Amino acid sequence: MINIPKGTKDVLPSESYKWQYVENIARETAELFHLKEIRTPVFEHTELFQRGVGDTSDIVTKEMYTFKDKGDRSITLKPEGTAGAVRSFIENGMGNGVLPAKMYYIIPAFRYERPQAGRLREFHQFGVEIFGAKGAQTDAEAVLAADTLLKKLGLKVQLYINSIGCPACRAAYNQALKAFFAPHLDGLCYDCKTRYEKNPLRLLDCKEEGCKRVNADAPKMLDYLCEACKAHFDEFKNYLELAGVSYEIDPRIVRGLDYYTRTVFEFVSTSIGAQGTVCAGGRYDKLIEELGGNPTPAVGFAAGIERLLIVMQQTGVDIPQPKTPTVYLAGMDGECRKKAFELCAALRRNGVFAELDHMERSVKAQFKYADKIGAKFVAVIGGNELAEGAMNVKNMATGESERVALEDAVVYFQNK
Ligand code: ATP
Ligand code: MG
After folding, report:
1. Ligand 2 centroid to 386 CA: how many Å?
2. Mutation test residue for ligand 1: of 22, 56, 63, 119, the one with most atoms within 8 Å of CB
3. pTM of the entire structure?
4. What is the pLDDT of residues 281-296, one digit of tens each?
């Protein structure tokens, strides 16, 4: 017996309608915001993520699924969606086309994490990226797309926003952070000691309780923003207000990926604890350049589909049940069963959701099965019916039956 790998999950046929529901609403939302789908490979060259996600991020330092392929190339399974979208944007010269380039994706993502509720090694993201627009209006547009999705899904969430400035103003901030953390270094976790040296901003993203306590009093990036970044943040807030999206400023949000500039945001469910961040994103004006493209401003976000589903489940959001068959065709024996098969094929050809027995059950057992799968009608074809060219149709809700000619079957069920 071979088991599923740790940190992964099967989506069973009986549960997949919930996923489809979320994915359909994600696609619907994307369409509403004029976002077109992009599909990129599940794996990319490792270097893309090292440069794109950043080599001081947790993802790159600890979480990537990296392996050598048979051609001795270092390959990594996508840990997130932005780097691949940016690679494609550059490689396909989308920057020379009509801007902004607005796109979305639904992808599996892979991170070697400690599995727990809402934290998997293979998980799924709905992501949005908008390339080419530098104004704060577009940051608000990204937030609005996420907000629309979450509302359509019936989730109660709080939006937290922050600005982490640009490389210019962040330099002074990093100095201030280092000065603040220096006397606390001994009490910080092992990782934070490295972060202190390599990327002090990362210190604020630590999830260790001890580090979090120290972080609470750390200087705030918002106090260090340069004039341009401050104006951008003010405009961003103003656009959110115009769109009627309420927000709270959380000066501790820095995000787990290295590529962000200026705006960062997170949507947190108010109903679950630890893994409550269902959606997160921000602006990444330096990433395209970093990956070899022409300087291009960009903003995006990603929502974790498993987390959305957990929150929906925990808050009792009603997910519509999948459709059940309009009609179940019950054949009595040999010839009748063949007729049922033939009729079933004709009904499906004409778009009627029909099902029939595959298990050689008795008519009685077929009725029981039809009831179990929620068939609205059961059409019995027995010897008499076959001779008459008819079927006996039972409405499973009312219990009423009527005789219907086989030649009228398609029209009859098309209207049910
Ligand atoms: P966290 O702080 O929870 O580790 P993150 O900052 O690493 O999250 P992002 O890289 O921003 O997360 O990914 C966007 C979204 O994807 C998250 O808000 C979350 O909903 C989801 N997500 C991230 N990692 C996982 C995971 N291991 N399992 C399930 N969902 C995840
Ligand atoms: Mg993480």
Report:
1. 63
2. 119
3. 0.94
4. 999 999 999 999 999 9
